[in-house]
Amino acid sequence: MNPEANAILITADRLWDGTGGATLVRPTVRVVGERIDAVECGLLPPSSCSGDRIDFPGCTILPGLIDTHVHLVMSAQATNEAIIDQVLRESDEQLLARSLANAQAALRTGITTLRDCGGKGTIVRQVRDRIRRGEVAGPDVLSCGSPITTTRGHCWWLGLIADTHDQVRQAAERMLREDADFLKVMATGGNMTASSDPMRAQYDPEALKSIADIGRQSGKHSAAHVLSRVALPGVVAANYRTIEHCDWRVEEFRYEFQPDLARRMIDQDQIVGLTMSGLARRAFLPEIKHINIGPVQRLDMRFACERLMLDLGVRYTIHSDAGVRLCPIDRFDLGLQAAQVELKLTPNEILRAVTATAAEAIGLPDRGTLTTGKRADLIVVDGDPLKDLACMGKVRAVMKAGQWQVK
Ligand SMILES: [Zn+2]
């Protein structure tokens, strides 16, 4: 086959390639098959390519976004009770339809890969596989199946309960047998589940280590949900690939950063997932300021501690936790803008967190940057998001593996 014949040339005003370097002016991206063949500055003469050409005046080309923590089965309603009730009440068919719709909504906003951190039964895996087989459009999905949790613990209503060491091992092995892409454990309680306690560890260090070890033996990474510092030493000792939320809270209204622990995370190249979900978007959702609950009251303390962690050099992704309250999957752009306001990160740092770093965090080295040989996952947004992150809400086109998904 003549490779020229199926080449696609994409041009725009500028391109940001995910490696952290400067923005290219008047770039041309050449896609052959599902890969990026070349990224060049300046326009190629028309005679150099007989393939499709498409120009996006006024726009910026970026790598496809990667949201490393979402919940496809959840509905992002205003209260936790409503979301839990929805998950428990809906039939598998309804949950499957909801999850598929969520995945497709994410794709339209530029998310070409997402990692689902907790579903019910085999729902998320079914979505993943239908997309993978090409039966339906959607982003690439990584699934943990369900998160491992304790009786009445955080997200017990997703159905994967394990209390003893034996049960923990069995739960991890079962998820791998059911073709999970990674393992997820609820290392502490969570805000969402009233019967759990975010200030308490749900598992001892031995249980935490057995999950991460079982994952590693099968070549899978593991993620730990941590909403207070009590569980962090065990999660660091077990070397979980990603630490979700990574909250340094030690008392109801006290946070305490521990540099020694953070240095060990850096030495092991662990990556934290900073959560910019609904409640963290207070700067853009004024109604949140009036919600008088702990997680909102504590935001200043939380962000101050996260800033200390970032200043020390801990690597991070930024995720949405989409599906939780007031956090619809199609507003990742608000989460990115909230990270700029609350954590004083630059657009360049924020975009790296949701492209190159995210790909590395979840073990997908074939994507995350727009460089020769990578999979052609790219988006086109109106304007210049390096100057104004609000442009991330104006997605004009989405390509996944060399195929236009939105154009
Ligand atoms: Zn979550």
Structure overview:
- The protein is 30% helix and 23% strand.
- By secondary structure, the chain is an alpha/beta fold.
- A hairpin with a 2-residue loop joins strand 17 and strand 18 (403-406).
- The structure holds zinc ion (ZN).
- Zinc ion (ZN) binds at residues 69, 71, 117-118, 321.
- The site of zinc ion has 5 residues, from loops.
Helix fraction, binned, reads 25-40%
CATH C-level name of the largest domain: Alpha Beta
Terminus-to-terminus distance:
26 Å
Derived structural class: alpha/beta
**CATH architecture assignment name of the largest domain:** Alpha-Beta Barrel
Output the number of helix runs: 12
Query: Spans with pLDDT under 50 lasting ≥5 residues?
Result: none
Ligand inventory: zinc ion
Alpha carbon gyration radius: 21 Å
Give the CATH H-level superfamily of the largest domain: Metal-dependent hydrolases
General shape = globular
Task: Please tell me the overall pLDDT.
Answer: 95
Report the sheet with the most strands, covering strand number, pairing sense and barrel closure.
8 strands, mixed
CATH fold title of the largest domain? TIM Barrel
Give the percentage of residues in beta strands. 15-25%
